[in-house]
Amino acid sequence: MKRHKDTLEFYSIENNSDIQIEFVGSIKAGFPSPANDFLKDKIDLNKYVSVHPDATYYAKVNGLSMEGEFSDGDLLVIDKSLNPTDGKIAVCYIDGDFTVKRIKIEGDKCLLVPTNSDFPTIEVTESNQFQIWGVVSYVIKKVM
């Protein structure tokens, strides 16, 4: 099994942004219609993705351990106020490094599970320096 190292680049949220983008509302993936007929308002993406602005930050994915969930270069929106429960994807600090993994609780075990099988599952033990920094609430992907 190959061991690759992922890294994350962290960014704080900009709360004073004056940039607003035209907001179409919801779009059905059905028959096409001109978007201009449906323009409703403007949206500030920072306000949309940060329910708790003082507890929200961004991280850019750099690595492949969560391939399938995210890709290298995706932007994660992380909320430190959310409860890191079983099945959630979280940014974790373990033994001096940051990683993003799915949390799995099995009895009294806490596992950090990658989606890419080239990476090992990490079992958190009492000997680890470990902290959950926040739960991923949104992913901003580039599709082109």
Overview of this protein structure:
- With 144 residues, this protein is mainly β.
- It has one domain (7-140): Umud Fragment, subunit A, CATH 2.10.109.
- It has one helix and ten strands; from the N terminus they run E-E-E-H-E-E-E-E-E-E-E.
- The strands form two sheets. The protein has an eight-stranded antiparallel beta sheet with strand order 1-4-5-10-6-7-8-9, with no helix packed on it. A two-stranded antiparallel ribbon has the order 2-3.
- A hairpin with a 2-residue loop joins strand 6 and strand 7.
- The longest helix has 5 residues, at 45-49.
- The protein is globular and about 50 Å long.
- The two termini are 31 Å apart.
- The model is unreliable at 21-27 (pLDDT under 50).
Question: What helical percentage do the residues reach?
Answer: under 10%
Q: What characterizes the major β-sheet? A: 8 strands, antiparallel
User: Mean of residue pLDDT?
Assistant: 81
Class, according to the CATH hierarchy?
A: Mainly Beta
CATH architecture field = Ribbon
CATH topology: Umud Fragment, subunit A
> What class do helices, strands and sheet pairing give?
mainly beta
Sheet with most strands: strand arrangement: 1-4-5-10-6-7-8-9
Tally of helical segments: 1
Count of folded domains: 1
Keywords:
144 residues, mainly beta, Umud Fragment, subunit A, 1 helix
Briefly characterize the structure.
The protein has one helix at residues 45-49, and strands at residues 7-12, 21-23, 41-43, 56-62, 75-79, 89-94, 97-106, 109-113, 122-124, 130-140. It is mainly beta and 144 residues long.
